[in-house]
Amino acid sequence: RDLLGGDATALCPVLIDPRNDVVERPVAGAEARADRARTGGSVLAGAVEGFHAAKDDTVAPFALAEASGWVAGPLSVARTLAAGPYGRARARLHGAAVPDVATELPVRDGFSDEERRLLAEVILRTTGLVRGFAPLVVLAGHGSTTENNPYASALDCGACGGNPGGPTARAAAAILNGADVRQHLATAGLDIPGGTWFVAAEHDTATDVVTLLDRHLVPAVHQRGLDALAEDLVSAGQGLAEERGRDLPGVRRRRRLVGVTGRGAVVGQVRSRSTDWAQVFPEWGLAGNAAFVVAPRWLTAGIDLRRRAFLHSYDPDGDPEGTALETILTAPMVVAQWINAQYYFSSVDPERFGAGTKTVHNVVGGLGVLRGQDGDLRVGLPRQSVAVGDRLVHEPMRLLTVVHAPLDRIDAIVARNTVLRQLFGNEWVALAARAEPGQDWSRYTSHGWVPWPTAEDVTR
Question: How many CB atoms lie within 10 A of CB 8?
Answer without folding.
Answer: 12
